[in-house]
Design goal:
It is a single chain. Helix content is 48%, strand content 16%. The protein has 12 helices and 10 strands. The longest helix is centred in the middle third of the chain and has 18 residues. The protein has 2 domains: 140 residues, 3-Layer(aba) Sandwich (Rossmann fold), CATH 3.40.50; 139 residues, Rossmann fold (3-Layer(aba) Sandwich), CATH 3.40.50.10750. The strands form 2 sheets. Strands 7-6-8-5-4-9 form a 6-stranded mixed sheet, sandwiched between helices. The protein is α/β, with parallel strands linked by helices.
């Protein structure tokens, strides 16, 4: 059973309450919601009307004045995020119409980031033809993370890997392995690795990709076991290029991007997502919440 299949089983067991604020405007989202309900994978929660309780979630999270919070929850995305924040829904699913930055903005206003996380990030679940599954991060959100941001991405990705893959073996990727190269990028990855390790993440770095994935090369270089299942890229350039190369050249299925780092689950859909994509992304988000 692969990670997506396990996620479907987890979703069936939980039957989470999902709010999809774009249902009234997008047939794909509506069809996906119907399929999720029919398959016993989730319950749909209608978008609530503005209320003092929802506004209070924004006040508590952002420290804004109540009148401003009330205006903010007039926006359906922010209101849906506030529903998750106060426990009226378990998962927010949006992005079929709204750009990623708006989904992140709404979640940041009402839900907030998990403890110790400085900014949200994302990952792709990469499923290779031979059956291998890995998490690639960040490939969609954090453009030029500094060392602290990278450490946070690793923490979030490790938690995602534990939920989806059963365990997390994190590798911080670089053009250098250990001290084989120098420069600002290597220094950033070195500092990030130390911070992640200090936070309890099972991580190695800096390492080149072959060292992270090939046991024989890892043995020769004396760096890790060559069995990483979470690859943390030093920049969005590297991550986005990397996942697309594996997708196109190796025939991997790339599921995502899946947002991570918030206190509660937030699912950001691609605006080109199919009904199948929306169902899969929602199910993975539910599994992460389980």
């Amino acid at each position: 059973m692969n990670a997506l299949e396990r996620s479907f089983e987890a979703a069936k067991a939980r039957n989470a309450r999902v709010v999809m604020p774009e249902i009234p405007e997008d047939d794909r989202v509506r069809d996906a919601a119907n399929r999720l309900v029919a398959g016993g994978l989730a319950s749909m929660v209608a978008l609530a009307e503005p209320s003092d309780e929802l506004a209070a979630a924004v006040v508590e999270n952002r420290g804004v004045k109540p009148a401003l919070a009330r205006r903010m929850i007039g926006k359906p995305l922010v209101r849906a995020a506030a529903m998750v924040a106060v426990g009226e829904a378990d998962v927010l699913v949006a992005g079929a119409l709204a750009p990623t930055r708006r989904v992140i903005e709404a979640a940041s206003l009402a839900i907030g980031l998990a403890d110790g996380i400085r900014q949200p990030s994302s990952f792709f679940l990469m499923s290779l033809p031979g059956g291998s599954e890995l998490i690639f991060a960040d490939c969609a959100v954090s453009v030029e993370p500094d060392a602290g941001d990278l450490a946070g991405i690793a923490r979030s990705s490790a938690a995602s890997a534990e939920a989806l893959l059963g365990d997390a073996r994190v590798a911080f990727l670089s053009f250098a392995t250990g001290t084989s190269g120098t420069g600002p990028s290597v220094e950033k990855v070195t500092v990030a690795t130390g911070a992640a390790q200090a936070a309890g993440v099972n991580a190695i770095g800096p390492v080149q990709a072959d060292t992270a994935l090939n046991p024989e090369i890892a043995r020769r270089k004396g760096s890790g076991a060559g069995d990483a299942n979470v690859l943390v890229f030093p920049s969005l350039d590297a991550g986005n290029i990397g996942y697309k190369l594996v997708q196109e050249l190796a025939g991997a299925q790339a599921i995502g991007p899946v947002l991570q780092g918030f206190r509660k689950p937030v699912c950001d859909l691609s605006r080109g997502a199919s009904v199948d994509d929306i169902v899969a992304a929602t199910v993975i988000s539910i599994a992460l919440a389980a």
